[in-house]
Amino acid sequence: MADVARVAGVSSQTVSRVSNGFPGVNEETRERVLAAMKDLGYRPNSAARALKRGDFRTIGVITFTLSTTGNMRTLEAIATSAAQEGYAVTLLPVAVPTQDEVRGAFSRLGELAVDAVIVIMEVHLLDSASLTLPPHVKVVVADSDADDRYAVVDTDQAGGTRDAVRHLLDHGHRTVWHLAGPSESFAAQRRTDAWRKALEAAGRAVPPLVRGDWSADSGYRAGLRLAEQDDCTAVFAANDQMALGLLRALEERGRKVPDDVSVIGFDDIPDSGSFQPPLTTVHQDFAEVGRRCVQSALRQVRQGEAEPGTTLVPTRLVVRESTGRPPSREGWRG
Question: Which of 227, 260, 268, 331 counts the most CB atoms within 10 A of its CB?
């Protein structure tokens, strides 16, 4: 810094103000300092500056898996939103979803010097009924059962599910079958609960649950079973990948979509409009979930206090060509 000051003909304090982006420096002087920095190859020591400010400009992210569409798109949205705020993201995958592993992850992130932590907690802990995080940590939880103990951001899973079920019932289907996600998933659980409640509220029979594991292959296997159910005219799949496998199974078994069976997915992945037929699905706004997670984390950083409570990001139903009225013999008016 002293060398830059000497070459630019200014004080070290002026160099510091320029390197930190502070206002109040004459533009000509600023350009002279920047030119001196470039000529001398000077770069501010970000670690030293962070220690001095007590601000590391980094958000830690803990997640249990990177294999699901929801987690990957949420992580992408968090990284994008953080970058727009001038923050980097430090990702720490946790191999086993246990309370000890979560505590260990928080300890490691503390060593890596982060300002706040976002936990993408899509599955139940194996050794605990609920999530317990270290006290006095600036934390936001995405997709969990953390209730109002922490700042939580989630998609309105129940609202999206109700819209899907109502869409099918309004088309005249007697009931709606459900291809559910894995039992350990919070999102799958909420979608299953909302599906059941929507049918009960409408006075309709609740068919036996069929479960997959989020993959298209599991949707295909489940679809082979559903194709044998003559009274199955509508299926709500808990994600688009399973819906893709379901469409293949129905096609192989001669059950036309939507003439014989209507299918709705959840997520609205980029390829869902290119399925055959194009998939009706529930759109999740992953970008908004990521943005709100980052904004919630940064409010805690800037205000110095937690803000418990749940923020739900709305969904919307995207109607395409995979849904329609049931076969005439199954039509029903309530």
Answer: 268
Q: Which residue has the higher pLDDT, 124 or 84?
A: 84
Confirm if 118 and 74 have CB atoms less than 8 A apart: no
Task: Specify whether the CB–CB gap between 113 and 58 falls below 8 A.
Answer: yes
The CA distance from 198 to 123, in Å, is 24
CB 108 within 8 A of CB 93: no
Strands 234-237 and 262-267, by their bridges, are: parallel
Q: What is the pLDDT of residues 7-55, one digit of tens each?
A: 889 888 888 788 766 777 888 888 888 888 888 887 765 545 554 555 6
Of 277, 293, 279, whose CA–CA distance to 81 is shortest?
293
Residue 311: what residue type? T
Question: What is the CB neighbour count within 10 angstroms for residue 4?
Answer: 24
Global pTM exceeds 0.85: no
Q: Specify burial of residue 21 (Cβ count, 10 A radius: 0-12, 13-18, 19+).
A: exposed
b/e map of 152-166 (b: 16 or more CB within 10 Å)? bbbbbbbbbbbbbbe
Run of H or E residues at 43: none
Question: Any idea which residue has 């980052």 for tokens?
Answer: 294
